[in-house]
């Protein structure tokens, strides 16, 4: 929008005009009369623009009616493809079941989720360090860990509808088809580890596995890591990386893929100090939605209770385990996930892994029902012990407090799939206004694009120059976007859809006042801020140090 002066019969008249595109041509259209003096015109234009913006916003975003919208997994998959989040891999060749490619927006979101996880679990703590192990390693690792022998599923095919899936051996006799309830035919055991050849000449090459989890290298490298990082119990070792499982029936978009990423921690304690969860961890009053093994066996509903109550009733055995459940749930909540969609479910006797004494899953209410989002197993000393025996290398470390060598135990192994976390954040952020336009309310910390910068009118060189300067300055720190095409409303809507939390618009007043409009995605609210303060304000908004409503005009 811009102000023009017209002279008629020796008198000046001021008008507010706007450039619009009609039939492929750009035309200027008068939208308001602004009076007879420049001062009056500028004042009226400012008020008018503000009203339009607010009006637009209410129209564009339905301001008061933006609500989370429940969508199906297929709807999410379609949206992700349309907006550049996730595509079926190599779709031009028909894709490959269980494999996905992350597009320009999705790869940013995925990276931000991993970075947020690393920051929270590694950089913000004194007791956890990270590693980055190999995807292909010595096969003895998987023999020793029990994966070759125990990491097996039973492949079944429905006799009626031919649906293929896997079942746990313990459930085989009672299981029916999850689609049509038909009788199942067992196709026998299968090991869901992918194999490959290492070495180019067949006779000299050896078989190796693609890792089915990231955790094992934490155990094989345990002594080196503990020594290098001078770790003292209790401590943890974290890792993020690709894992591969030859799932019999990959389905439900990213939920069950054959290639995925995991974010895992092994948290080690002195086995003689199992009850010593630090007092300052403040876990007592944290509320959990608990679905214990007993509740499942008795067909009861899950129950909300504080950690204190769950520990007193011995539903959760160890305070350390409760601590990790709180820590992991808090990570999701702090990044904007809806606590109402989470519960913790204890593994029943039959389903517990070979290594675990107690396992809790964090489950999320996916559109396909409550499903595992993250496993938190107590692995005891199983892994260090097994690798110690097989490799004949001691895994014991010195416990300074007792002056004795001990084999630490893993009191909790939080293991989370990046793609399942990705879906959770997408489902909880996916909102629409009354016009059914999508507003993706991702937390600014994980939003793919932190801010979009627009000149109000792309033909105005001065506005373009200022907007581009701001863009260049901001992109030194964040992934930001410059956009000058289409109406301002359309530019807002485009960014709302991909979760950009803030839009910054440069208009004529920016030239004189050296300020810009900053707009909040979640309610369309707008403020004027000095250009010199944009970076600092944005930093505070992204980190959550200030809320948008606290920005002074
Ligand atoms: P499920 O019972 O769903 O097959 P799991 O119990 O085998 O999962 P874990 O071995 O505990 O899974 O793996 C830890 C985490 O890794 C899971 O909670 C999940 O977030 C993720 N994960 C596991 N398998 C897959 C997969 N095929 N696709 C995507 N994520 C996965």
Judging from the principal axes of the Cα atoms, what is the shape? elongated
How far apart the termini lie comes to: 21 Å
Segments where pLDDT lies below 50 for 5+ residues? 55-63
β-strand amount: 25-35%
Structural class: alpha+beta
Number of helices: 16
Q: How helix-rich are the residues, as a percent range?
A: 25-40%
Distinct ligands: adenosine-5'-triphosphate
Strand order of the largest sheet: 7-13-14-22-19-18-17-15-16
Number of strands: 29
Q: Rg, please?
A: 28 Å
Major sheet size, sense and barrel closure: 9 strands, mixed
Indicate the mean pLDDT: 91
Write a brief structural summary:
The chain has 553 residues and is α+β, with helices and mostly antiparallel strands.
Structural overview:
It is a single chain. It is built from 16 helices and 29 strands. The site of adenosine-5'-triphosphate has 16 residues, from strand 14, strand 19, strand 22 and helix 12.
Descriptive terms for the model:
elongated, 553 residues, 9-stranded mixed sheet, 16 helices, alpha+beta, binds adenosine-5'-triphosphate, 5-stranded mixed sheet
What topology does this entry show?
Layout: E1 2-8, E2 11-22, E3 25-35, H1 38-61, E4 67-68, H2 73-82, E5 86-88, E6 100-102, H3 104-123, E7 128-131, H4 140-145, H5 147-150, E8 153-158, E9 164-167, E10 184-190, E11 195-198, E12 206-209, H6 216-220, H7 222-228, E13 235-244, E14 259-269, E15 287-291, H8 293-297, E16 303-306, H9 307-312, H10 319-334, E17 342-346, E18 358-366, E19 369-378, H11 382-391, E20 397-399, E21 404-406, E22 409-417, H12 418-429, E23 430-432, E24 438-440, E25 451-455, H13 461-474, E26 480-482, H14 488-497, E27 502-506, H15 508-513, E28 515-520, E29 526-530, H16 534-543
Parallel strand pairs: 7-13, 15-17, 25-26, 25-27
Antiparallel strand pairs: 1-2, 2-3, 4-23, 5-6, 8-9, 8-10, 11-12, 13-14, 14-22, 15-16, 17-18, 18-19, 19-22, 20-21, 23-24, 27-28, 28-29
Helix pairs in contact: 3-12
The chain binds adenosine-5'-triphosphate (ATP).
């Amino acid at each position: 929008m811009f102000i023009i002066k017209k002279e008629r019969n020796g008198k000046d008249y001021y008008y507010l005009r706007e450039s619009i595109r009609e039939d492929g041509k750009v035309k200027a259209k008068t939208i308001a009369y602004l009076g007879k003096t420049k001062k009056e015109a500028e004042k009226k234009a400012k008020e008018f623009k503000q009203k339009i913006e607010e009006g637009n916003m209410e129209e564009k975003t339905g301001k008061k009616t933006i609500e989370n919208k429940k969508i199906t997994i297929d709807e999410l998959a379609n949206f992700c493809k349309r907006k550049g989040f996730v595509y079926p891999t190599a779709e031009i060749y028909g894709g490959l079941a269980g494999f996905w490619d992350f597009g320009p927006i999705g790869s940013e979101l995925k990276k931000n989720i991993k970075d947020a996880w690393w920051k929270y679990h590694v950089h913000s703590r004194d007791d956890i360090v990270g590693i980055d192990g190999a995807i292909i390693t010595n096969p003895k690792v998987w023999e020793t860990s029990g994966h070759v022998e125990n990491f097996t599923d039973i492949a079944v095919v429905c006799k009626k509808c031919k649906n293929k899936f896997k079942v746990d051996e313990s459930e085989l006799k009672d299981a029916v088809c999850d689609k049509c309830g038909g009788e199942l035919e067992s196709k026998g055991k299968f090991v869901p580890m992918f194999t490959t050849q290492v070495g180019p000449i067949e006779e000299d090459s050896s078989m190796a596995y693609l890792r089915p989890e990231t955790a094992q290298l934490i155990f094989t490298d345990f002594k080196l890591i503990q020594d290098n990082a001078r770790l003292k119990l209790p401590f943890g070792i974290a890792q993020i990386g690709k894992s591969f499982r030859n799932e019999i029936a990959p389905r439900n978009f990213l939920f069950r893929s054959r290639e995925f990423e995991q974010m895992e921690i092994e948290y080690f304690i002195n086995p003689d100090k199992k009850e010593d969860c630090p007092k300052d961890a403040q876990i007592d009053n944290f509320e959990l939605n608990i679905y214990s093994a007993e509740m499942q066996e008795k067909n009861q509903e899950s129950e909300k209770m504080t950690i204190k109550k769950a520990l007193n009733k011995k539903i959760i055995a160890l305070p350390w385990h409760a601590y990790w459940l709180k820590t992991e749930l808090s990570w999701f909540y702090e990044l904007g996930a809806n606590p109402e969609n989470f519960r913790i479910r204890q593994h029943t006797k039959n389903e517990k892994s070979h290594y675990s004494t107690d396992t809790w899953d964090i489950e999320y209410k996916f559109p396909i029902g409550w499903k595992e989002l993250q496993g938190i197993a107590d692995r005891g000393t199983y892994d260090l012990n097994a690798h110690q025996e097989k490799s004949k290398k001691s895994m014991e470390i010195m416990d300074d407090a007792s002056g004795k060598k001990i084999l630490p135990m893993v009191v909790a192994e939080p293991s989370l799939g990046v793609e399942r976390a990705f879906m959770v954040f997408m489902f909880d952020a996916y909102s629409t206004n009354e016009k059914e336009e999508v507003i993706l309310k991702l937390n600014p910390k994980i939003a793919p694009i932190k801010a979009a910068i627009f000149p109000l009118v792309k033909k105005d060189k001065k506005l373009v120059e200022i907007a581009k300067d701001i863009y260049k300055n901001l992109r030194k720190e964040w992934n930001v976007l410059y956009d000058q095409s289409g109406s301002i409303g359309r530019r807002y809507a485009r960014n709302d859809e991909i979760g950009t939390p803030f839009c910054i618009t440069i208009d004529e007043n920016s030239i004189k006042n050296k300020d810009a409009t900053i707009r909040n995605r979640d309610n369309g609210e707008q403020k004027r801020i000095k250009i010199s303060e944009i970076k600092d304000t944005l930093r505070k908004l992204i980190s959550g140090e200030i809320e948008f409503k606290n920005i002074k005009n």
